[in-house]
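Milestone M4 deliverable, item 7.
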Amino acid sequence: MAAIIASKVSSNIVLITGANRGIGFGTARKLIQEHPGYHVIIGSRDASQGAKSAAELSSEGLSASSVQLDITDDDSIMTARDYVEREFGRLDVLINNAGISFEGREMEYSLRQRMAKTFDVNVFGTAAVTDAFLPLLEKSENPRIVFVSSMAGSLTQSTDFSDPWTKVPMLAYRSSKAAVNMVMAHFASQTVEKGFKVNAVCPGYIGTNLNNFQGTGTLDDGARIVVKMATLGKDGETGTFSTIDGLSPW
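Output delivered:
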C-alpha cells in the first residue's frame, strides 16, 4: 500500500466532483488515458457508486481512487478534504463537475423550489468545495481549477433572440450557470497572484442523465475541453470561459 500511495503522491492529483458517471466519469477516463502521470479521485455522493467507477478505471490500468463527497453537505466536504490531505498531502487539480437540473419538472416543484435546489448544488455546493480545497491546492506547484459551466449561462447568448436556444425555458439552470461563471471569476481573481489557473468551460450538448441522454455529443467529446483546461501549464490562461472551439462570450 505504501508503494501505491507513494506513486500517487508523485502524480498530479486530481479531484473530480460528481465523477461516478456522465461527463465527470468521461473526463476521468480521458484525462488518465492521455496523461498517465495523473491520478484521479472520483468524488461521488454515493460512496459505493464512486468505488465502482474507480474500480472500473483501475481494471483498465488507469490510476484512480474514490471518495464520498456530497457537495451540498459541509461535513461531507470537510471529510473528503481531510481524506485527500491524509492520503496525498496536496491537490493539483479540482474539477467542479457535479451539477443538477430540475428543468421540465414543473409539475413536481414550484419555481422557488427549482431555483433553490438547483442553486444549492450548482452554485453553493461548488463554491463551498472550491473554498474548502484551496489550502490543498496552494500546496501544488501548478494548481488548476476547472468549473464545468454551460453556454446556457452566457448572458450574450441568452439575449441573442435569433438563437432558438433562448426560447427554451431553463430559468433555474441558466441562472445557476451564469452564477457559476461569476464564482469562477471570483476565485480566479483571488488566486491569480498565487499562480492558479482557474477557468470555466462548456463541454457542449452531451447526452447524460442530466438531460435524459438527449444530447448530441459523446462523453469523450464533452471531456475534451475539461481535460485541456485541467492540464494547463504554468503559462496557461486564467479567468476564462471557453468551449473546445475557443473563448466564449459571457
